Amino acid sequence: MARSGKDRDTRVKTARKRSASSTRWLQRQLNDPYVKQAKAEGYRSRAAYKLIELDEKFGLLKGVERVVDLGIAPGGWSQVARKRIPNASIVGIDLLEVEPIEGVTIFQMDFMEDDAQIALEKALNGKADLVLSDMAANTVGHKQTDHLRTMGLVEAAAWFAIENLARDGAFLAKVLAGGTDSDLLKLLKQHFRTVKHAKPPASRRGSSEWYVVAQGFKG
Ligand SMILES: C[S@@+](CC[C@H](N)C(=O)[O-])C[C@H]1O[C@@H](n2cnc3c(N)ncnc32)[C@H](O)[C@@H]1O
């Protein structure tokens, strides 16, 4: 079917001050169907669809009453959780400021600080059924450093999950290509009945991100 002028991909002119890579990013962003869908459906991020797809595959949100959203900004995952489990209590944290989301308690803090984890635990007021982590470290361009920093976040999130999940709870976290490193995988397998890796369709094919899905917390 011929496409009308309106449907045609948006081309971005290279502005003098814009670098080639940011022009590429902008062009991809403007032509990305998930970005368009997020805009139309009122989600703050295209990342929302990763949680939707992972929930459809693994039933992560089913029957959940308490959720923790680590790396919540700008809020797409919590919006999805609010929609799918409107009575659940949701607590999130990010280094960045997040516009309020009705029914979600948000802390602007560094998750790696002890007082941040204490604040989350207090706000949870009980054991969580689901701990989500979409946290990603700011990359510095040095492959090993970036890998270590991201894995440090995943490991801290996993320990937080182990300490705060209710029996049968689940943990979902963004990891890098190659999956979870062996020590962490061992830890997760010790504490959860099933541990799987997935790359939802909404995760860009060229990106190195994957997700680890651990379900059936042994308590
Ligand atoms: C990919 S974004 C999350 C997108 C989110 N899931 C959504 O649907 O809108 C990753 C977030 O992790 C946050 N982050 C990275 N390190 C963090 C830390 N140490 N403490 C808290 N948040 C952190 C970043 O600031 C960033 O906003």
Notable traits:
219 residues; alpha/beta; Rossmann fold; 2 domains; seven-stranded mixed beta sheet; 38% helix; globular; disordered N terminus; binds S-adenosylmethionine
Q: What is the global morphology?
A: globular
Biggest sheet, open or closed, and with what strands and sense? 7 strands, mixed
Query: In CATH, what is the homologous superfamily of the largest domain?
Result: Vaccinia Virus protein VP39
Bound ligand species: S-adenosylmethionine
- The number of distinct β-strands equals 7
Can you list the strand order of the major beta sheet? 3-2-1-4-5-7-6
Distance between the termini: 55 Å
- Radius of gyration computed on alpha carbons: 18 Å
What is the CATH architecture descriptor of the largest domain? 3-Layer(aba) Sandwich
CATH class of the largest domain: Alpha Beta
How would you explain this protein's 3D organization?
This protein has 219 residues and is an alpha/beta fold. It folds into two domains: 13-42, no CATH class; 48-217, Rossmann fold (3-Layer(aba) Sandwich), CATH 3.40.50. It is 38% helix and 23% strand. The chain has seven helices and seven strands, in the order αααβαββαβαβαββ. Strands 3-2-1-4-5-7-6 form a seven-stranded mixed beta sheet, with helices on both faces. β1, α4 and β2 form a beta-alpha-beta unit. α3 packs across α4 (76-84). The N and C termini lie far apart (55 Å). The model is unreliable at 1-7 (pLDDT under 50). Bound molecules: S-adenosylmethionine. S-adenosylmethionine (SAM) binds next to α4 and β2.
